[in-house]
Write a structure and sequence with these properties.
binds 1-deoxynojirimycin, Immunoglobulin-like, Rossmann fold, five-stranded parallel beta sheet, alpha/beta
Length: 776
C-alpha cells in the first residue's frame, strides 16, 4: 500500500500549538539518565508549556481519547474488514484513541498514524506499544535467564538492541521491563522478571530502562519504557496467575516496591498497573499505591496504563458494578490509560458531566501522556519510527545476533561440575544429544518472544555440530516428547504423555556414545502469562528418560532448558554436571556450545533459588530467622519440614566456573560509622584454578535487631570481576546510611542504629563475615 505522508512536524505544531511556542528555540529533548532522572530544567519547562498549550485546545472528549489504548492486531495495511475495525478507524479519525498496542511494522503503524494525523481535529500522534520483553526479532535470553548474568552492561545492551529493532518497526513504547519480584516457581511469569531479590531486581530494572530509553528519548533508536506490574503481581497466592495477593506493608515496601522506585529514579516513562487485588483493592484502582505513593510521594510525572482490560475486570473482582463505576474508581486512583477495557470511553465523559469525577483528573492523566509524546519527539514528526529503509536494514542483523550469543553465554549457570566433566574436549569421538529440547529450534526463543520467527533459534544439536570438527560423530535421539511447545493461547497437551517408546532408541545411543548431553526441562510456552503450574518437577516421561539414559551411560551432562526453577533433587544427586541454560534466545545452541567446550568460561549466578521440592515455595534466601530457627535438643519444635530440608537445592547467587575462586582477608575500614559517614569493606579474591574466569563478588548484610524483624541476609552490593589464573584482586564496597535503610516501624524509609554483620562471597551461602555498627 502506498502511503503518502502529507504532514510534517511544522504543519502539526502550527495546527495545534499556540503561536507563542514558535519563538522557542528548537531543542533536542534530551534526557539525563545518569544520577538524576529529570530532563534538564529548560527542556522540561518547554515541554510543560507545550503540553499545557495543547491541553487548552482540547475538548473533554479529546482529552479522554488520549486515555484510550486499543489493540491493533488486525490487518492494518488493508481496508478494515469488520464492523469492529471500522469503529476503531472511526475513533482514530475522531481523535478518540491515544495509543495502540500490537500494531507493528512500518506499513502498519504508518497507516494508523496517518489515519489520526490526516483526519483528527488536533492531529495528536499515537503511541505504539508492544511487549518488547527480551528482544524484538533478534531474541535474547528470557529475562530471568539474562538476570543470571548479573552483568548490567550486557542487560542494558540487550534492551538497547531490542529498542533499536522495535523502533525500526514503528514501535515507540515497550511494555517492559517487568520488575515484579517473585519467589514462587509455580508462577509462569517468573520467567519474565529478574528473580527473587529486590536489590538485584532494582539494578536490573535500571539497566533495562536505560537500554530502552537511552540518554535521549527523542532519538529514533530509543523508546519509552514501562515498568510493570504495579504492584505485587508476583505474589499471587499459590503461584496462580492473576490470583489474589495478601501482602503486609513490610513486604510491600521492602521487597516489592524497590525496583519500581529504582525505575522512577531512572526516569521510566510509564508504568503498568497489575491485574491482581491487594488486600481487597484491585491494583488498577489502588489509590494509595498509584496516586499517593507513586505519583505523590515519589514525585513521578510519567503515566500509568492499566493492564489488558483490568479496569473493566474490576466488575469480576466484585469491586464495582459496571464499567462506569470502574472508570470512576480507576481515574480517581490515578490510572491514566485504559488498555482495551473500554471503560474510560464508556464512563469518563458522563462522570465528569455528572460531577462525579473532577475534570482536573482527566487533565492530569492527559498531560502525562502528552508529555511522553513530546519527549519522544512525536509532535515534531509523528512518522519518525516509520522508515522502511531502516526496517529493512536494522532488524535481525549479524551484529545483533552476535550480541545475543554473547549475552546468552553470560546467562548460563554451571550448577554442578563434580568430576570436572566440563569443559568437554573438542576431540571427543562421539557425542550423543538426547531429549527433544536438544533439536528444538523453537523452545529456546521462550515465551514473550516479540516478533521472533518460529523455529528460528540455533538448536543445541546445531550448535554442537558447528563447534566440533567434522570427524566428531554427533548423534541425536529424541527420547520423549514434551508437547507443550505451542504458541496457541489454549493450553492443550499435543502429545501422549504416556508414550515412552522413544526411550529405547535413546538408551541404545547413550550406550554407544562417549558423552551424553541430556536436555531436560520445559518447552517455550510452559512458562509465561497464564502458565502457572502446581508441579515444578520434570514430566513423568522426562524422568523415565533420565533414569534409563543414566543407567546406560554415567558420563552425562544434564542441560536444563526452562523458564522457571525446577525441582530436580534426584538428578542433582546423581549426575556430575548440570548446566542451567534457561530459554536463551536466537543463538541458544551456539552459546551453550561455547560454554560446553570452554570457549566461554561460565560466569552466571542464580537470580532465584531452586527448590528441592515444590512444597518449599515460596522459597528465597533473604528469609526471617523466626522464633524457632534451629533444633538444639533434636526435637521437632522448630521451623522446618519433617520430610525435606529448609535449604534450596541450588541457592540464590550460586554458580560455578571452570576455574576456582578463593575469598580471603575480609576487612573493614572501621568498626562503626554514623550519619554522613561510611565504612569500606574489602576482600581479596584469588583465581586459584588454571583458567581465566569471571566471578560475581556478592556482599550481604544482616541487620541484627530492628524496629521490625530483619532478614538473615540481604544482598547489598555485587561486582563482576575477571581474573586470570593465579591473579588476585581486592574488591571494595562502600557501606553508608543509604544502604542500610528499610521501611521501618515508623512507616518510613530510614536507617536504624545498631549492629550489623557483613558477608562477602560467591553466593548467598557465603560464610566469610565480619561485624560493624551504625549510630545515627
Ligand atoms: C497482559 C500482560 O499482563 C501485560 O504484561 C502485557 O503487557 C499486556 N497483556 C499487553 O500485551
Amino acid at each position: 500500500m502506498k502511503i503518502v505522508t502529507k504532514y510534517g512536524s511544522k504543519h502539526i505544531i502550527s495546527t495545534i500549538i499556540l503561536g507563542f511556542l514558535f519563538v522557542l528555540p528548537k531543542i533536542s529533548f534530551s534526557q539525563n539518565l545518569g544520577t538524576t532522572h529529570t530532563l534538564d530544567i529548560k527542556t522540561s519547562e518547554i515541554i510543560e508549556k507545550k503540553v499545557d498549550s495543547v491541553l487548552l485546545l482540547m475538548t473533554l472528549k479529546e482529552k479522554i481519547g488520549q486515555l484510550v489504548l486499543y489493540n491493533g492486531s488486525w490487518d492494518v495495511t488493508g481496508p478494515p474488514s469488520d464492523v469492529g475495525n471500522k469503529e476503531k478507524y472511526q475513533k482514530l479519525k475522531n481523535g478518540e484513541v491515544g495509543a495502540m498496542l500490537n500494531a507493528t511494522s512500518v506499513a502498519g503503524t504508518k497507516e494508523l498514524q496517518r489515519t489520526v494525523i490526516e483526519n483528527s481535529r488536533l492531529k495528536i500522534p499515537l503511541l505504539f506499544g508492544y511487549d518488547v520483553i527480551h528482544g524484538f526479532k533478534t531474541i535474547f535470553p528470557i529475562p530471568l535467564g539474562e538476570s543470571a548474568s548479573w552483568d548490567l552492561e550486557a542487560i542494558k545492551l540487550s534492551s538497547s538492541i531490542a529498542a533499536k529493532e522495535a523502533t525500526a518497526s514503528g514501535i515507540n513504547w515497550a511494555f517492559g521491563p517487568m520488575v515484579d519480584i517473585s519467589r514462587d516457581a509455580r508462577w509462569g511469569r517468573i520467567m519474565e522478571g529478574s528473580g527473587e531479590d529486590p536489590f538485584l531486581g532494582s539494578k536490573i530494572a535500571v539497566a533495562r530502562i536505560k537500554g530502552f530509553q537511552g540518554d535521549d528519548l527523542s532519538s529514533n533508536h530509543t523508546l519509552a519504557a514501562c515498568a510493570k506490574h504495579f504492584a505485587a503481581y508476583g505474589f499471587a497466592e499459590g503461584g496462580r496467575d492473576y490470583n489474589t495477593v495478601s501482602i503486609g506493608a513490610y513486604e510491600l515496601h521492602n521487597t516489592v516496591l524497590p525496583p519500581f522506585k529504582a525505575a522512577v529514579e531512572a526516569g521510566v516513562a510509564s508504568m503498568m498497573s497489575a491485574f491482581n487485588e491487594i488486600d481487597g483493592i484491585p491494583a488498577t484502582a489502588h489509590k494509595e499505591l498509584l496516586r499517593d505513593v507513586l505519583k505523590n510521594d515519589w514525585n513521578w510525572n510519567g503515566f500509568i496504563v492499566s493492564d489488558w482490560a483490568s479496569i473493566a475486570e474490576m466488575i469480576f473482582h466484585g469491586y464495582v458494578g459496571d464499567k462506569v463505576q470502574a472508570a470512576e474508581r480507576a481515574i480517581i486512583a490515578g490510572n491514566d490509560m485504559d488498555m482495551e477495557g473500554r471503560a474510560y470511553e464508556a464512563g469518563l465523559e458522563q462522570l465528569v458531566k455528572a460531577g462525579r469525577v473532577d475534570e482536573k483528573l482527566i487533565d492530569d492523566a492527559a498531560k502525562r501522556i502528552l508529555r511522553i509524546k513530546f519527549r519522544l519527539g512525536l509532535f515534531e514528526d509523528p512518522y519518525r519510527y516509520c522508515n522502511e529503509e531502516r526496517e529493512k536494514k536494522e532488524i535481525y542483523t549479524k551484529e545483533h545476533l552476535e550480541a545475543s550469543r554473547d549475552v546468552a553465554r553470560k546467562s548460563i549457570v554451571l550448577l554442578k561440575n563434580d568430576t570436572n566433566v566440563l569443559p568437554l574436549k573438542k576431540d571427543v569421538k562421539h557425542i550423543a544429544v538426547i531429549g527433544s529440547l536438544g533439536a528444538d529450534k523453537d523452545s529456546p526463543i521462550g515465551s514473550w518472544r516479540g516478533m521472533a520467527t518460529p523455529n528460528s533459534a540455533v538448536s543445541l544439536l546445531e550448535g554442537i555440530k558447528l563447534a566440533v570438527d567434522k570427524t566428531v560423530k554427533v548423534s541425536y535421539a529424541k527420547g520423549v516428547a514434551l508437547g507443550m511447545g505451542d504458541r496457541s493461547f489454549v493450553r492443550e497437551l499435543k502429545v501422549n504423555r504416556d508414550d515412552f517408546t522413544g526411550i529405547k532408541e535413546a538408551v541404545a545411543l547413550a550406550k554407544s556414545a562417549e558423552i551424553v548431553l541430556l536436555t531436560l526441562g520445559e518447552e517455550a510456552f510452559q512458562s509465561g502469562e497464564g502458565r502457572s503450574q502446581v508441579s515444578i518437577e520434570l514430566t513423568k516421561p522426562q524422568q523415565r528418560l533420565f533414569d534409563a539414559v543414566y543407567a546406560a551411560n554415567k558420563n552425562i551432562v544434564v542441560i536444563l532448558m526452562n523458564g522457571r526453577p525446577l525441582a530436580i533433587s534426584d538428578i542433582a544427586e546423581k549426575v556430575p554436571s548440570i548446566l542451567e541454560t534457561w530459554h536463551l534466545g536466537s543463538e541458544s545452541g551456539n552459546a551453550i556450545a561455547d560454554v560446553l567446550f570452554g570457549d566461554y568460561n561460565p560466569s552466571g549466578k542464580l537470580p532465584v533459588s531452586f527448590p528441592r521440592n515444590v512444597g518449599q515455595v515460596p522459597l528465597y534466601y533473604n528469609v526471617k530467622n523466626t522464633g524457632r530457627p534451629s533444633n538444639p535438643d533434636g526435637m521437632v519444635f522448630w521451623s522446618h519440614y519433617t520430610d525435606e530440608k529448609n535449604e534450596a537445592l541450588f541457592p540464590f547467587g550460586h554458580g560455578l566456573s571452570y576455574t576456582t575462586f578463593k575469598y580471603k582477608d575480609l576487612q573493614i575500614s572501621a568498626p562503626s560509622f554514623s550519619t554522613g559517614g561510611n565504612i569500606i569493606v574489602s576482600v581479596t579474591v584469588e583465581n586459584t584454578g588454571k583458567l581465566k574466569g569471571k566471578e560475581v563478588v556478592q556482599l550481604y548484610l544482616r541487620d541484627l535487631i530492628g524496629s521490625l524483624t530483619r532478614p538473615v541476609k540481604e544482598l547489598k552490593g555485587f561486582e563482576l570481576i575477571e581474573l586470570t589464573a593465579g591473579e588476585s584482586k581486592v574488591v571494595t564496597f562502600t557501606i553508608n546510611e543509604e544502604i542500610i535503610k528499610y521501611y521501618t516501624a515508623n512507616k518510613k524509609w530510614e536507617a536504624e542504629s545498631g549492629d550489623f554483620t557483613v558477608f562477602v562471597g560467591g553466593s548467598s551461602q557465603t560464610s566469610l563475615q565480619t561485624d560493624f555498627s551504625f549510630k545515627k
